[in-house]
């Protein structure tokens, strides 16, 4: 169906009959949401773990035609959800051609478009905009001004056109009017200055604005959505009560509730598809360890809980782990990329930069905290794989003076030669479910995982130079895993 180019064509077109040109943006979102729900379609593509919590609340807010705010710590997909709202918009929307605020051809609100309708009538030129042009986003910062959000008088426009400065035609519209008939999102809402917040709630309730003291009645048609940190969005924070009162729904986001949800998010977002399937194999225990790092960090009292531990931490860490394994493959001219535990330790820079530490953590240093997090993550994951393993002979081997050096650059052959003398190690690895051993790189990775797990259990020691040896403290003669002995792990 060809698109109309004038108001007359629009009135006579099938498009005019099919589309509800007078419906508001919130009604449009509501009706398109109802259609999606009726067809059983997924509402927010790529959002994992919110199916029974956040998404139903957002659905209720849209069905109620409410403005809403997402409250959550960093890395909880708030911006992704807000941007995904465009999937609930019509594929095309008719507007007055050249209008700065996307005026409805049937009911324009800006002075320029009203003049054009009076002058051209049904010959008014129109165009169509897509959903991406109907979404406007602004990161709130203290230096944002009323001119940025609402608009300002343009003296140059006034001088060139011969208008008085008080004339509506001299206005340069800000972001909010330019989002007319669309979605306007503000991230970190409490960071807006108080007077900007006042300007927002006036638009939300009364639909009028003031620019340089000149009152303009501008009934904008906008769905307002926000995001904020819960710590700031309180009476003690920086949000003004009248604006808080005008926001229809407060929806709390959260981090993944379990490791499997976290893995689903991380593998979806991490850049690991840079290789073909026959070039890389990431053992599932590596995915679990990388994800578990974030989980133990969120529970660690040395890390600031008000800042949170972003989901970007495991995403960036997994990418770095894979890159370090890729580096080893290139150096050793291997045929398969398989990450090891030593690759996780090599990814410390991606972890330390994402941790906000409390006083105790700052005294220890981010690097030591990150290493401890990895050790504890390995300990928890080791428990799930080897809870019934009997490793008496392996610990005895170390107690008799055996040592193994872990290196993220050692070749598979070098590693296999070093560990083949450890009694019972290969047998445990090969008989453990969920661990693949059909390639030398997979065996080496599993062996290093097992050794690091023993270290996390304090059954053996590991030096600063990554040499595994006998435990430094006296241990019980019973070497079957004792899960009450986890170092800092619940």
Report on this model:
- Helices cover 43% and strands 12% of the residues.
- With 490 residues, it is an alpha/beta fold.
- It has 2 domains: 7-252, P-loop containing nucleotide triphosphate hydrolases (Rossmann fold), CATH 3.40.50; 259-485, no CATH class.
- Strands 4-7-10-1-11 form a 5-stranded parallel β-sheet. Strands 12-14-13 form a 3-stranded antiparallel β-sheet.
- Strand 13 (460-462) and strand 14 form a beta hairpin.
- Helix 12 crosses helix 13 and helix 18 (366-386) packs across helix 22.
- The longest helix is centred in the middle third of the chain and has 21 residues, at 312-332.
- It is elongated.
Explain the layout of strands and helices.
Layout: H1 7-12, H2 14-18, H3 25-39, H4 54-63, E1 68-71, H5 78-84, E2 93-96, H6 111-120, E3 126-129, E4 135-139, H7 146-149, E5 151-153, H8 155-161, E6 171-173, H9 175-178, E7 182-187, H10 194-205, E8 208-211, E9 214-217, E10 222-228, H11 241-246, E11 249-252, H12 259-269, H13 284-299, H14 312-332, H15 341-345, H16 348-352, H17 359-364, H18 366-386, H19 392-399, E12 404-405, H20 412-419, H21 425-430, H22 440-456, E13 460-462, E14 467-470
Parallel strand pairs: 1-10, 1-11, 4-7, 7-10
Antiparallel strand pairs: 2-3, 5-6, 8-9, 12-14, 13-14
Helix pairs in contact: 12-13, 12-14, 13-14, 13-18, 18-22, 20-22
């Amino acid at each position: 169906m060809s698109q109309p180019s004038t108001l007359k064509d629009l009135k006579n077109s099938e498009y005019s009959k099919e589309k509800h040109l007078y419906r508001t943006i919130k009604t449009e979102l509501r009706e398109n949401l109802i259609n999606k729900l009726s067809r059983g379609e997924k509402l927010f593509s790529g959002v994992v773990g919110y199916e029974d919590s956040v998404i139903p609340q957002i659905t209720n807010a849209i069905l109620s035609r409410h403005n809403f705010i997402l409250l959550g710590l960093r890395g909880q997909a708030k911006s992704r959800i807000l941007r995904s709202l465009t999937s609930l918009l019509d594929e095309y929307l008719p507007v007055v051609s050249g209008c700065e605020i996307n005026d409805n051809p049937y009911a324009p609100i800006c002075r320029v478009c009203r003049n054009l309708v009076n002058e051209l009538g049904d010959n008014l030129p129109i165009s169509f905009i897509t959903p991406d042009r109907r979404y406007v986003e602004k990161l709130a910062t203290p230096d944002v001004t009323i001119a940025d959000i609402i608009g300002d008088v343009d003296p140059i426009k006034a001088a060139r056109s011969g208008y008085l400065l008080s004339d509506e035609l001299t206005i340069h519209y800000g972001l909010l009017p330019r989002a007319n008939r669309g979605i306007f999102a503000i991230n970190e809402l409490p960071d807006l200055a108080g007077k900007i917040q006042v300007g927002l709630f006036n638009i939300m309730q009364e639909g009028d604005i003031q620019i340089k003291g000149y009152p303009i009645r501008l009934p904008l048609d906008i769905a307002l959505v926000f995001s904020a940190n819960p710590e700031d969005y309180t009476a003690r924070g920086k949000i003004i009560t009248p604006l808080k009162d005008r926001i229809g729904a407060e929806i709390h986001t959260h981090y993944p509730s379990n490791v499997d949800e976290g893995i689903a998010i991380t593998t979806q977002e991490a850049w690991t598809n840079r290789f073909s399937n026959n070039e890389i194999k990431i053992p599932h225990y590596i995915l679990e360890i990388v994800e578990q790092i974030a989980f133990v960090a969120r529970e660690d009292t040395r890390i600031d809980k008000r800042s949170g531990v972003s989901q970007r931490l495991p995403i960036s860490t997994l990418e770095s782990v894979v890159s370090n394994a890729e580096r080893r493959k290139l150096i050793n001219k291997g045929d398969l990329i398989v990450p090891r535990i030593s690759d996780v330790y090599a990814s410390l820079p991606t972890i330390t930069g994402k941790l906000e530490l409390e006083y105790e953590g700052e005294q220890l240093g981010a690097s030591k905290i990150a290493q401890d997090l990895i050790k504890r993550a390995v300990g928890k994951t080791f428990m799930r794989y080897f809870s019934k393993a009997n490793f008496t002979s392996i610990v005895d081997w170390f107690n008799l003076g055996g040592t193994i050096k872990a290196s993220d650059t050692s070749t598979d052959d070098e590693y296999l030669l070093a560990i083949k003398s450890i009694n019972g190690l290969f047998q445990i690895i090969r008989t453990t479910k969920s661990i693949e051993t059909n390639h030398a790189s997979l065996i080496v990775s599993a062996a290093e995982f097992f050794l690091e797990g023993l270290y996390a259990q304090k059954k053996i020691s590991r030096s600063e130079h990554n040499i595994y040896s006998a435990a430094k403290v006296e241990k019980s003669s019973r070497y079957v895993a004792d899960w009450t002995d986890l170092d800092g792990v619940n």
